[in-house]
Design a protein that fits this description.
The complex is a heterodimer of chains A (about 300) and B (about 475).
Chain A lengths: L4 H5 L8 H38 L18 H7 L2 H32 L6 H13 L2 H11 L5 H9 L12 H30 L2 H9 L4 H12 L1 H16 L3 H5 L14 H11 L3 H23 L7
Helix pairs in contact in A: 2-14, 3-14, 4-5, 4-8, 4-11, 5-8, 8-11, 13-14
Chain B lengths: L2 H29 L5 H18 L14 E7 L4 H12 L1 H5 L1 E7 L5 H10 L6 E5 L2 H8 L2 E2 L15 H6 L1 E2 L2 E2 L1 E2 L2 E2 L2 E6 H6 L14 H13 L6 E2 L9 H13 L19 H15 L3 E2 L6 H4 L5 E5 L3 H8 L3 E4 L10 E2 L3 E6 L5 H11 L2 H11 L2 E2 L2 H5 L11 H8 L5 E2 L7 H16 L4 H18 L7
Helix pairs in contact in B: 3-15, 10-11, 10-18, 18-19
The chains are: A mainly alpha (about 300), B alpha/beta (about 475).
Chain lengths: ~300, ~475
């Protein structure tokens, strides 16, 4: 960790000292090991993205007998002046702002619960993880029925609220995003839970023992032992939840009466992208949305890295 | 933290390098007339249709089928009637001619997306089954070619005129179907009679919108919470323009200006359309429309007395209700009752399949015997007059006579979906707008937005110039 970054990038073998030779061979081993992944990433991510970048400056259609031509920044101007796009960004942000903290906290809570040495904890681990194994689109179809105005969700709610609260989740724009968030939490919290569960089991037991000898309360142990012990994994969970939350698509495509509806209440950047690029066949404009989407997520990820916990 | 900007600038540098590289490739692509594979298939198909339209290749059939041919056919359903038709063809005329047809069932949901994706990857079937209005976009894109001289003189005489006009684009016949469609309200006669509700028999005699409003409220007051089933659970897609654009057309608007198909301005968002859609929204908000149904049981079990739907429910409804079932026209929103028309039909894909073999199958599947089987299976209006005449339910006094009357009065009552390559965009914009209106959005704003979307699509395609 003490090696200056410049040396790694500098391939000039200035002096054949043993230390530098060793570093060089480690460097080439690193290159070789990362080659398969790098190749696949280049093939399936970098090159397609390069194409998207180029196509975003054309009026390319998915299919059209008309010739493709360069249109400069027209697509970007179109997208950035379209209120639908900004509405989609707003919806994405609302979704992220709610799900990232709630889902991470819920995942941590579940992880701590199923980490207890209790009878049946394995059963609960499986139950909480189970939704991850379902395809999101299939799960959305089931939720479509559960969220029907006279479906199971409302039947239960009516019992608890004495009939005062039973909204039309999917047809009323006020509640649709809430329904989407609910389904998303259910569907994906198990993934974060498993990561945090592994992290929890990695925290040395001796630290807890030492803490309890020192008379730390349960809350004190959680704050001063658990949280510092899993901070890297927790940070990873928060980052990955944020990135995944921006890819919100399956639920908002299937649950509402129309993709992104009703009244654009659940329209997301991914819906805009698919509607434009495939639905309307405007590959050029769709590519412009993809590029802007990439820049947004890149910016947020870089911004988030500023808060990455440092090693002690 | 000092690493971050450096990493970022390195990333940018790499991206920039890629841009230059890809730009160089892209430049080639443009100049070199289709160096890329996508470009290649696109321009190939384009020129194919140009030739066909240009006259030189307007005679695809040469009367011979050279050697054994295997044809692929995509279908929107795998019911017995369709698999049966293919099996009968393969066992009968197919064996004689050396032609085998292979059925690829894609299901109805997202069907057009499959075809577009297949075209994009240069993987079109030889015979395409498609819902009527998609023909025009497929023809414009050059996916399908005119039937031209494959159709022998006089062989179209038995077809309903609506089938021929649906299959015609740019003055050329591209497709033929085995059935046409019918649209109306299936009603439970006993419930209407018990509430002293008049039962109209023809579209001229249809309930006015005010009358229909009163009928819905009367039924609701009689204890039926949501008396009108509108198959809302069909979801986004073809059902919404097919089933509900007649409201706007009956009010005096339309989903596109049909004079030149260049804009929906004034047609879809004019005062007539807004008034009609506002009425529809009121019905939704007052709970008169059944938006909660998840299947057909409410009408079948008699919980809901009115079902706003197409011909395809006749079989199931007749079985459930028997003589209590009656078909009434859609209400008149101002300029007379309208109804949807048109349905699935078969076209010849542009490609190297033997056109004579393709025609042999299309001819077989539109023969009286097959039309009878398929139309019965779909509960649809047979595409051939001879088959229609033999079915008593389509004669005066019969259960489905209204469909025939409406089709005969096309386009004054049965109203074709617009024959424009922009239909997909119109369908999507209208489908979204209807969902938003039902959800309570401002009607004028929603329709203005739909118009903007349609017009933007037409502009993005340079007005869909005739090829």
């Amino acid at each position: 960790m003490t090696a200056p970054a410049a040396t790694t990038g500098d391939l000039e073998p200035s002096s054949p000292e043993p230390q530098s030779r060793e570093r060089e061979s480690r460097f080439s081993a690193g290159i070789i090991f990362s080659l398969p992944a790098a190749l696949l990433l280049t093939l399936f991510m970098v090159i397609p993205f390069g194409f998207a970048l180029v196509l975003s400056f054309t009026n390319r259609k998915l299919l059209s007998p008309l010739a493709t031509r360069w249109v400069g920044f027209d697509n970007y101007v179109d997208v950035l002046t379209d209120s639908g796009f900004w509405g989609a960004i707003k919806n994405n942000l609302v979704f992220s702002i709610v799900t990232v903290p709630v889902q991470s906290a819920l995942a941590l809570l579940l992880a701590i619960l199923v980490n207890q040495k209790l009878r049946g904890s394995v059963f609960f681990r499986v139950v909480y993880f189970l939704p991850i194994t379902f395809s999101l689109s299939a799960a959305s179809i089931i939720w479509l029925v559960l969220l029907n105005p006279s479906g199971m969700v409302n039947t239960v709610l009516e019992v608890f609220t004495f009939g005062a609260f039973s909204p039309d989740w999917l047809n009323n724009p006020t509640y649709t995003m809430a329904a989407v968030i609910l389904v998303s939490l259910w569907a994906s919290v198990g993934f974060q839970m498993v990561i945090l569960l592994a992290a929890l089991q990695d925290v040395p037991r001796v630290l807890y023992e030492a803490a309890s000898v020192d008379g730390a309360s349960a809350w004190g142990q959680f704050r001063n032992v658990t949280l510092p012990g899993i901070r890297h994994q927790l940070f990873f969970v928060i980052t990955i939840t944020m990135i995944l939350s921006f890819r919100l698509f399956d639920q908002v495509w299937i649950l509402p009466p129309r993709p992104g509806g009703p009244v654009d209440a659940t329209n997301t950047i991914m819906v805009e992208l698919v509607d434009t690029g495939f639905g309307a066949g405007q590959v050029g404009k769709g590519s412009a949305i993809a590029v802007l989407f990439f820049l947004l997520v890149l910016f947020l990820t870089i911004f988030q890295r500023r808060f990455e916990p440092k090693d002690l | 933290m000092s690493h971050a900007p450096r990493k970022f600038s390195r990333l940018l540098a790499i991206l920039f390098a890629f841009t230059l590289l890809a730009a160089a490739c892209g430049g080639d692509d443009g100049d070199g007339e289709g160096a890329g594979s996508e470009e290649g298939s696109g321009s190939e198909e384009g020129s194919g249709s140009e030739e066909a339209a240009g006259g030189d290749a307007a005679a695809p059939c040469d009367g011979n089928i050279d050697g054994p041919v295997t044809l692929t056919l995509t279908s929107h359903g795998s019911g017995d009637a369709y698999t049966g038709a293919v099996a009968d063809f393969n066992a009968g005329p197919g064996t004689e001619l050396g032609v085998t047809v292979e059925l690829i069932d894609l299901g109805e949901a997202g069907y057009e997306d499959f075809i577009v994706a297949a075209a994009a990857s240069g993987d079109l079937p030889d015979i395409i089954d498609m819902d009527g209005p998609f023909l025009y976009n497929f023809a414009w894109n050059g996916f399908v070619q005119p039937l031209g001289n494959c159709v022998p003189d006089g062989s179209l005489d038995d077809f309903l005129p609506s089938i021929i006009s649906q299959g015609t684009y740019n003055g050329e016949l591209y497709s033929l179907g085995a059935f046409d469609s019918g649209m109306g309200i299936w009603a439970k006669r006993s419930v209407l009679e018990a509430n002293d509700i008049r039962i109209p028999e023809t579209s001229e005699d249809a309930w006015t919108v005010d009358e229909f409003d009163t009928i819905l409220r009367t039924l609701q007051d009689s204890g039926i919470s949501s008396p009108l089933d509108i198959k809302w659970f069909y979801g986004a897609g073809e059902w919404r323009p097919y089933g509900f654009a007649p409201i706007i057309q009956s009010a005096g608007g339309d989903i596109i200006n049909r004079s030149d198909f260049q804009s929906a301005e004034g047609a879809l968002n004019g005062p007539e359309a807004v008034a009609a859609m506002t009425t529809f929204q009121t019905w939704a908000q007052d709970g008169l429309l059944d938006l909660e149904a998840v299947d057909d049981t409410p009408f079948i079990e008699g919980d809901v007395p009115l079902s706003w739907v197409g011909h395809w429910m006749y079989g199931a409804y007749k079985e459930a209700l028997g003589d209590d079932l009656v078909l009434v026209p859609l209400p008149d929103f101002g300029t007379g009752s309208k109804a949807g028309m048109g349905s699935w039909n078969y076209a010849m894909a542009t490609g190297d399949a033997d056109p004579d073999a393709v025609w042999a199958f299309i001819e077989f599947v539109t023969s009286p015997e097959q039309v009878k089987i398929i139309a019965d299976a779909e509960s649809a209006v047979p595409a051939l007059r001879s088959v229609l005449a033999a079915d008593p339910t389509f004669q005066p006094g019969g259960d489905r006579y209204l469909y025939v009357l409406n089709l005969e009065a096309a386009p004054d009552i049965a109203f074709p979906r617009p024959a424009t390559p922009a239909y997909g965009a119109i369908r999507d914009a209208f489908s979204d707008a209807l969902a938003d209106i039902v959800a309570g959005a401002d009607v004028q704003e929603t329709l203005d937005k739909a118009v903007a979307e349609i017009d933007a699509d037409i502009a993005a395609n340079d007005g869909y110039p005739t090829q």
